[in-house]
Specification:
The protein has helices at 2-7, 16-30, 52-68, 125-136; strands at 12-15, 35-40, 47-50, 75-82, 86-94, 140-145, 151-159. The chain has 164 residues and is an alpha+beta fold.
């Protein structure tokens, strides 16, 4: 049902940067125990064909995942970058690293790498939904440890909408 609901979403062309900036401003109020910094370094058109609401949900899930994997008081970076044909959204958090044996399975259905803040395990739907939303937009998702070993980066690549 989840896959069908995403597939049935109406497609529109929208400016992805405006939504990302707005979400990150809201996260500062929601996650007061984190320093969430948004930066746009993308060049050229920032338009994507898809759903602005789904991209907001994708970012919500990545940020919530980053918050659950990082200590209070830490900094999280949300960046929008670009190359010729794609936009790159990255969410970086300092904290726990990715489990080596689960790197290829992170976005699979019901795979979980952590617990909620109250100690209860969670179902691991968020990263699966992130992958579904990225695919709906013609994009892809990857995660890796930061080079210095201090945390994790999740990246989502989205094709730019080419205008006439």
């Amino acid at each position: 049902r989840l896959e069908q609901a995403i597939a049935d979403t109406a497609v529109e062309t929208f400016d992805v940067e405006a939504g990302l900036a707005s979400c990150c401003t809201a996260y500062q109020d929601i996650y007061r125990e984190r320093d969430i910094v948004y930066r746009n370094t993308a060049q050229g058109p920032l338009r994507v064909a898809g759903s602005a609401d789904l991209i907001a949900q994708l970012l919500d899930m990545l940020v919530a995942n980053a918050v659950s994997s990082s200590p209070a008081g830490s900094r999280m970076d949300v960046t929008l970058g670009s190359d010729a044909g794609e936009l790159e959204l990255a969410v970086v958090n300092r904290g726990s690293r990715l489990p080596a044996k689960m790197r290829e399975e992170l976005c699979d259905w019901l795979v979980s790498i952590g617990e909620h803040g109250d100690g209860r395990p969670h179902l691991g739907l968020g990263l699966h939904v992130v992958a579904l939303i990225a695919a709906f937009h013609g994009g892809r998702v990857a995660a890796d440890d930061l080079a210095d070993g201090t945390g994790v980066v999740f990246k989502v690549w989205l094709p730019r909408e080419v205008t006439g």
